[in-house]
Amino acid sequence: MLKHLEKIVDSLKEILSKDAVLDAAGGPVAMVEQKSEPEITFDDMKVNLLKRTYCFDYYKAKLMHSDPRLLHWIGSINHCGYQREKSLKYLINNYKPGDENRILLRLEDWVPQISNIAKSWVLANFNNLSLMEIGDQHRLILYLIRKDRLAGSTVLSFVEGVLMNRALEANDEDFYLLNTMLRRRIYDLSIVRSDRLRKRVLFDRDPFNRLLLIRDGFERLTSNEIDCLKNDKSVLVKKRFLSMQISSNQKPCKDDLIVFSLDKNIFVREFARFYLNEFYSLDAYSLYEMQTDSKYFYIADYAKKEDIAVLLEGVNDSDRYVKYLCLKAVCKIDYSQLKTLNILDLLNSNKKIRKLVCNYLPKIFSLIELAEYKEVIIKASNGHEIYLFMLFEVSIWTFINESLSYIVENPDTNLIKFILNLYYQKPYIYEKLCPDLKKVIINNALVLETNPNYQLQEFIKHLMFTIKSA
């Protein structure tokens, strides 16, 4: 019995000797693959303001001597409050430009002792930062503004006050370099009481920022601001301006509505036409008829059948917007008129015109006629998808045959996904399958049966089953 136990002990020792190694201190360490902590950079922490770290000892062993600043950036967001406080004090005592990012973040710390340390530094030093240094922390500042814990706090009011002073001191060029959301916050803080900022809003490149002028009511706008807003390049600003004017019980003047009704954007025209008729009983159609330039073709907005000859003329206009507007009206009135137009020229036009044409061609062309334009259509950025969609609208079996041919020649993943999505939109197929086409489809299907793409394999199985009952 004793000998048997000795054999077991010897076996265990042998196993342990194979499965263990000595560490630097001479102790046994199990040969188990351990997961190391993720690598963290300054940029990672600047982007992810909610990031928390663990296992500070791991980073300490790695960074204590090589990069103590990065180490304490990591420590300042450690789950342990003691370590956060220790790292925060290190960053304050050894401050370098950019460390304000970690110090500001600790203003929202849930441990009062830590947040008070950050608060003291901010009240004493934030005023020394330049506008560009503050701008670099725009994500963090906007994040802190949204925190309920800091709402109405003295330190947040101080930060916003410094931000406002820096903005007023800066020249226009430096101010507009600030992040658009940070500029919006600055406008929010003082747009009512600062004439200089109101002027900057008018020329801000972000239309949502320019809309802040309208937010406080039409009555507050100066004559210069009104002129700028109603001539704004943004459709959104124009519509919102006109809407605010009407909701403020201020009737827009007739001349302004006429200008809006001649705007290049159809939504602005529609909006203006309604109120032109509502307030002044003026139909913009007669206004368009009097135009001598390309604005004459805005009669296309009405898509009247009696204007078909004029609209067909507009389709050949050199202005692409007029061409699209008239083509859209022609298709709405009678899309069979497409046969009288130069289809090749339309397909070689811009994307909007090509898309419009391709939506209607399957309704008026046979498969043979569509095939004549295949080479032109597939030259577009997504030409193969467009052509397959047109075939899908005319003949499901021709679509399947063409799709299989494409996949055999070039098994592109995105094209396969597009084809399968279209195919499964047809729950039932009532179209008769001719024997010759059936033979070609089956041959291509057999070639693709061994394709490693699982979805494609399932598609082939489904197709083969469908063909049996076709």
User: Based on DSSP secondary structure assignment, what is the total number of beta strands?
Assistant: 2
Give the number of helices: 31
Shape: flat
Beta content comes to under 5%
Q: What is the quaternary state of this protein?
A: single chain
Helix content: 55-70%
Largest sheet: 2 strands, antiparallel
Widest sheet, order of strands: 1-2
Task: Please provide a written account of the structure.
With 470 residues, this protein is mainly alpha-helical. Helices cover 64% and strands 1% of the residues. The protein has 31 helices and 2 strands. The protein has a two-stranded antiparallel ribbon. Strand 1 (20-22) and strand 2 form a beta hairpin. The protein is flat, with a radius of gyration of 35 Å. Mean pLDDT is 87; it is low at 12-35.
Question: Which helices and strands appear, and what pairs or packs with what?
Answer:
Blueprint: H1 2-18, E1 20-22, E2 28-30, H2 42-47, H3 56-63, H4 68-75, H5 81-93, H6 100-105, H7 112-125, H8 131-136, H9 138-145, H10 154-169, H11 172-175, H12 180-190, H13 195-202, H14 207-210, H15 212-215, H16 223-230, H17 235-247, H18 254-261, H19 266-280, H20 284-289, H21 308-315, H22 320-334, H23 343-347, H24 351-364, H25 367-372, H26 374-377, H27 383-394, H28 396-409, H29 413-423, H30 435-448, H31 454-468
Antiparallel strand pairs: 1-2
Helix pairs in contact: 3-4, 4-5, 5-7, 17-19, 18-19, 21-22, 22-24, 24-27, 27-28, 27-29, 28-29, 28-30, 30-31
